Amino acid sequence: MARFIHAHATHPDAFMALALAAAQIDAQLATPLWAEGPRPTLGWVYFSELFAGQAQPLLEELRQRWPGLAWVGCSAVGLCATGVEYFDEPALVLQVCDLPRDQWRVFSGVRPLGHWPAATLQLHADGGTPELQELITELAGRSQDHYLFGGLVSGREQTLQLADGVFSGGFSGLALGPQVALVSRVSQGCQPLGPERRISACEGGLLLELDGRPALDCLLEDLGLPAASNQAALRGLLPRLRNTLAGLRHEREARRPGYGAEIRVRHLLGVDPARRAVAVAERLESGDALSFCVRDAEAARRDLLRICTEIRAEAEDREQRMAGALYFSCAGRGGPHFGAPSAELQWVRHALGDLPLAGFFAAGEIAHDKLYGYTGVLTVFLSPAEGAR
Q1: Which end of the chain is more exposed for a tag (fewer CB within 10 A), N or C?
Q2: How far apart are CA 154 and CA 160, in angstroms?
Q3: Residues 54 and 132 in one domain
Q4: Rounded Cα gap, residues 260 and 306, in angstroms
Q5: Are residues 184 and 195 in the same domain?
Q6: Burial (0-12, 13-18, 19+ Cβ within 10 Å), 256
Q7: Residues 242, 101 within the same domain
Q8: DSSP for 323-355?
Q9: What is the mean pLDDT of residues 311-315?
């Protein structure tokens, strides 16, 4: 039975924030639920970028308070907890659990994953890592379920990762074994402008045709704009084009049980009036599905509630209970995007209940074997329900 505890606190002093959160953890460990059975083995810690200078002593303090726990986490511009977000304020979020030690392994640049038999991987990564997408694809291929979840560490000046040590750059994380039950979903923050179409012609990132029609004509149609035919006319449309995105879905990649469908949102880089083409910030493939879309708070709210509903339903179908969660959301989705501070996390709490949750607002989100943007990646750990056999 997997058990999770989480705590969070804000304070100008990093060690006071840790002390406040630690007191919450210790109070929960003193309850009858934890009186018998295994003690915590693994912990996550996410802390404000404002505390980055104290990362190493914070890790040492965690080790002193709870000897024997392994720790993973990172610094970030914003933090996630149950029903609460912290943006640009000194704060810290902790979560601990009692997953069996033979079902997880912490990895980093100094402690490679090796041939450890991972079913899934949680990943923290630096956005400046060379060939990052290729590394993500390669890591996913080394897991049994070909699935990663996590995010790019966010920061205005400094980004740090924790993986039983403090690291800058590269990637680190947690390998999870086949006995760790979880459900993971990606929530988009965009509203389609028109129908989903098939890519019928493309060259690299240049989108030439959709369903046999010129791509630029399809884009202008979805935007409700006239079919401009020259560069001068298109210049007047650039403000609308800059706010438009492309949602991509690979047909060859089947939906895997537990992990949902895969749609990636990418920026439009420009248009080619002569070829009636659209440049997309992604290498395209004929046969894939594409829809033009815009960021939309109401659509993001609906989609977030959708994935929460799917997760609850899958847990019930498996006759398991939700034990704890990790959430990695785009730094552009927090607070103002949803209309009010903490609105995004409050919706998750409303849908899933008072589930222990920790995470951060990322510079890019990781799910399946891809790097995403403007999304939220919600992963819920499951445990046998009471009375289930």
Answers
A1: C
A2: 9
A3: yes
A4: 11
A5: no
A6: middle
A7: no
A8: EEEEEEEETTTSGGGGTSTTHHHHHHHHHH-S-
A9: 95
Residue 244: what residue type?
T
Give the separation between CA 345 and CA 84, rounded to whole angstroms. Answer: 6
Reduce the DSSP state of residue 164 to 3 states and report it: coil
Instruction: Write down how long the chain is.
Output: 389
Q: Is residue 389 part of a domain?
A: no
Strand order in the sheet with 84-87: 84-87, 78-81, 357-362, 320-330, 375-384, 182-188
Asked if 131 and 16 sit in the same domain, the reply is yes
Question: Exposed e or buried b for every residue in 54-73, given b needs 16+ CB within 10 A?
Answer: bbeebbebbeeebeebbbbb
| pTM for the whole structure | 0.86
Q: What angle do CA 12, 61, 84 make, to 5 degrees?
A: 45
| 58-67 residue pLDDT tens | 999 999 999 9
What are 40's two structure tokens? 């915590």
Q: What is the DSSP letter of 159?
A: -
How far from chain centre, in Å, is Cα 218? 31
What are the angstrom distances between the C-alpha of 169 and each of 109, 321, 382?
9, 36, 31
pLDDT tens digits, one per residue of 85-144: 999 899 999 999 999 999 999 999 899 998 999 999 999 999 999 999 999 999 999 999
Q: Which residues contact 66 (CB under 8 A, 6 or more apart)?
A: 25, 40, 43, 96
Phi, psi of 246 (to 5 degrees): -115, 125
How many of the other CB atoms lie within 10 Å of CB of 26? Answer: 13
How many structural domains does the chain have?
2
DSSP state letters, 217-268:
HHHHHHHT-----SHHHHHTTHHHHHT-EEEEE-TTSPPBTTTB---EEEEE
pLDDT at 389: 40
User: Quick check: helix, strand or coil at residue 278?
Assistant: strand
Q: Give the number of C-alpha atoms closer than 13 A to the C-alpha of residue 184, restricted to the C-beta side.
A: 28
Q: What domain range is 309 assigned to?
A: 4-188+298-384
Same domain, 264 and 331: no
- Encoding tokens for residue 110? 């100094």
